[in-house]
Fold:
Amino acid sequence: MANVKFDRTLSVEMLEGDPWSDPPEDSTGLVRSVHELRKRPVGTLSAWDLARLIGQDVALPWTLPLGVEILRDTAPKQVETGWYDDELLTAVLNRKSSTWSTFPELAQEMVNVLEILTDLPSYIQRDVVKFRSRLPW
Structure:
């Protein structure tokens, strides 16, 4: 795994030093969820939580390494069972080219994860092709 170290007991707000105010009352569920997730220790975030944050490009210096770590650690089991955590995988794969230029070690880690994952559904294969086209090399 890429050498990314940070205190997983801290929240995104603490890591960024940028507490957000409460979301407006008429906010969508996604907006309310993102605001709430930013307050939780990053080490307690689930794959589902990380998919929400990564998909919104929130706190990528901390959420993306955790998401890639989960994908790496679960890839062999996902292949074995034929079940894929497609929400997290899709969120990670669909980051912009600039994200992968900023985090080339994580990009390489995802290339390694994709070598493990086989027989991906066609909709995820499309995301894999887009991901590979965004790589900085």
Residues 60-81 form the longest helix (22 residues). The radius of gyration is 15 Å.
